[in-house]
């Protein structure tokens, strides 16, 4: 029998790669997407299209957290999303696009879906190499939350367990893209831009890291961009 699994699906490149991995493993996928007041709500339509692509649109659950998460340039109207930064600047410190407690909240709600569903795993597309310094994308956070699952759920204490799967955590963006391309991930349906423009802006941190990854993977990004950072030309 297939294992039931939750895939936290934003509609971006990393979460779509997780979908591709779970699908290739033969898992019984239940996608979970969050609306949290993000400026790039275009990603929600991307998530719907990806769920449809994998034939699980009827199971795709979207949870509305609008107004509950704030304190980030991704959510707050009075905060500007940084653009045109160098790779050194992107890699320094915790950026303004960090959303306080976002992955903690997402994983708690994913767990609340997974346990009664009888799911054996939660897939999350966090990455600790080509990333923007978020503390909730680091291996130590994932290990700590796995301990929360083990100690704070009936499934955990009864030994049935729910695994927190982070298959991308130690991969570069280029390696993630190569893996996704091998598995036929529908990158043409995905959306990553923090600014929420159509086409994607090409100069925010997310666009820069995505384009850099495609370039280093020797592949062409199938989505359009308004412009390109000097790093991506």
Automatic annotation (TrEMBL):
One GO BP: tRNA queuosine(34) biosynthetic process
* The protein's required cofactors: Zn(2+)
Q: What is its EC number?
A: 6.3.4.20
UniProt cross-references to Gene3D superfamilies, sorted A to Z? HUPs
Q: Keyword set for this entry? A: ATP-binding, Ligase, Metal-binding, Nucleotide-binding, Queuosine biosynthesis, Zinc
* EC primary class: ligase
Reaction catalysed by this chain? Answer: 7-carboxy-7-carbaguanine + NH4(+) + 2 ATP = 7-cyano-7-carbaguanine + 2 AMP + 2 diphosphate + 2 H(+)
In this chain, Zn(2+) is annotated as bound at 193, 201, 204, 207
| One GO MF term attached to the UniProt entry | zinc ion binding
UniProt entry tagged with the keyword Coiled coil: no
Q: How is the cofactor bound?
A: Binds 1 zinc ion per subunit.
Which parts of the sequence bind ATP?
9-19
Which InterPro entries does this one have? QueC (IPR018317), Rossmann-like_a/b/a_fold (IPR014729)
Name the CDD domains for this protein: QueC-like
Q: In which pathway does it act?
A: Purine metabolism; 7-cyano-7-deazaguanine biosynthesis
Which Pfam families does the UniProt record give? QueC
What does the subunit comment say? Homodimer.
* Protein family according to the UniProt entry: Belongs to the QueC family.
What's this protein's function?
Catalyzes the ATP-dependent conversion of 7-carboxy-7-deazaguanine (CDG) to 7-cyano-7-deazaguanine (preQ(0)).
Question: What is this protein's name?
Answer: 7-cyano-7-deazaguanine synthase
Query: Species name for this entry?
Result: Thermanaeromonas toyohensis ToBE
Print the organism lineage: Bacteria, Bacillati, Bacillota, Clostridia, Neomoorellales
């Amino acid at each position: 029998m297939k294992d039931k699994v939750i895939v936290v699906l934003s509609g971006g490149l990393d979460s779509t790669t997780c979908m591709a991995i779970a699908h290739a493993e033969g898992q019984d996928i239940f996608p979970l997407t969050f609306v949290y007041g993000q400026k790039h709500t275009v990603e929600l339509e991307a998530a719907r299209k990806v769920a449809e692509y994998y034939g699980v649109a009827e199971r795709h659950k979207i949870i509305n957290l609008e107004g509950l998460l704030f304190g980030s340039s991704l959510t707050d109207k009075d905060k500007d999303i940084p653009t045109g930064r160098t790779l050194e600047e992107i890699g320094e410190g915790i950026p303004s696009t960090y959303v306080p407690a976002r992955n903690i909240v997402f994983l708690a709600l994913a767990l609340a879906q997974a346990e009664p569903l009888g799911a054996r795993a939660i897939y999350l597309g966090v990455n600790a190499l080509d990333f923007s310094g978020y503390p909730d994308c680091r291996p130590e956070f994932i290990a700590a939350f796995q301990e929360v699952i083990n100690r704070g759920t009936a499934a955990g204490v009864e030994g049935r367990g729910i695994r927190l799967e982070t298959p991308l955590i130690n991969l570069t963006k280029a390696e993630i893209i190569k893996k996704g391309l091998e598995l036929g991930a529908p990158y043409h349906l995905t959306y990553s831009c923090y600014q929420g423009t159509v086409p994607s802006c090409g100069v925010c941190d997310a666009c820069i890291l995505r384009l850099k990854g495609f370039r280093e993977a020797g592949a062409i990004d199938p989505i359009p961009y308004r412009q390109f950072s000097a790093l991506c030309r």
